[in-house]
Specification:
Layout (H helix, E strand, L loop, with lengths): L8 E12 L2 E13 L4 E5 L6 H8 L7 E6 L2 E2 L5 H10 E4 L13 H11 L5 H14 L16 H13 L5 E5 L7 H18 L2 E6 L2 H7 L2 E6 L2 E7 H6 L4 H11 L1
Parallel strand pairs: 3-8, 3-9, 6-7, 7-8
Antiparallel strand pairs: 1-2, 1-4, 4-5, 9-10
């Protein structure tokens, strides 16, 4: 990506460690990255590689022990609460298990409207119009909006999670294993939806997955993590076709099985 284009998200030398019964565990080791407007950066690695820790730091859900995160040039890591709240309005997050991220007592409409209410968006009528518009964009029939999470399939709930993530018109969406809990045919539908929304809304994605074949479909660039350390990073085609690291080749081989 050209240096003339300003990075939307930039992380510099992020490190993180946690206490355990075995002492301090270093979950991330000096990880740096850049994500530009409209592109998809894929973060690949097995369970325990540091992907989820990195996502928490980048989305300002927790501060790093070392390093910094910048969004649109402003430091987000360790920023005051009001600045982090402004950041949260500019990002969306889609989790792996959508059923766990919806209140079972709320209809889908209420869950989608909640971010608008929290951010004091418009009148009741304007909020309803935006919920309906976003549901249509994400392939949710209007009649589904009156249902509860227990009445929806996994694919419908993941579409709803995507709708909730984009309803405030963010510039960046974090995707944490968004297709891992879905069967293969539904995975393909969700990946196609994400690709279409990216074109329609001009979104940037940071896509975390253990399955490098999923990243192959969407990612502009891929970073490979192992034990909190970057093994390899570069354009997706290069990583997929000319992987120089043995661990990356192992991930590619497992995706082909």
């Amino acid at each position: 990506m050209s240096d003339q284009k300003e990075a939307l998200l930039r992380a510099v030398a992020l490190s993180q460690s946690y206490s355990s019964k075995h002492g301090r565990i270093r979950a991330l080791n000096s990880v740096s990255l850049e994500l530009y407007p409209g592109e998809t950066l894929g973060i690949a690695g097995e369970s325990g590689s540091g992907k989820s820790t990195l996502l928490r730091l980048l989305s300002a859900l927790e501060p790093p022990h070392e390093g910094e995160v910048r969004f649109e040039g402003k430091i987000i890591s360790g920023a005051p609460v009001n600045e982090r709240r402004a950041y949260y309005k500019r990002i969306g997050i889609v989790f792996q298990q959508p059923r766990l991220s919806f209140d079972p007592r709320w209809t889908l409409f209420r869950s989608l409207e909640e971010p608008l209410q929290i951010n004091r968006f418009g009148s009741s009528g304007e909020r309803r119009a935006l919920v309906l518009e976003t549901a249509e964009k994400t392939g949710l029939d209007e009649e589904l909006l009156n249902r509860y999470p227990s009445q929806l399939s996994g694919g419908q709930l993941q579409r709803a999670a995507i709708a909730r993530a984009i309803i405030l018109k963010p510039r960046l969406v974090f995707l944490d294993e968004p297709t891992a809990a879905l069967d293969v045919s539904i995975q393909a539908q969700i990946l196609n939806l994400l690709k279409d929304l990216q074109k329609l809304e001009g979104l940037a994605y940071l896509f975390v997955s253990h399955d490098i074949s999923v990243l192959a479909y969407l990612a502009t660039r891929i970073m490979v993590l192992k034990n909190g350390t970057v093994m390899e990073s570069g354009p997706a085609k290069m990583i997929l076709n000319e992987a120089g690291n043995a661990y990356t080749r192992t991930l590619l081989a497992s995706a082909m099985e």
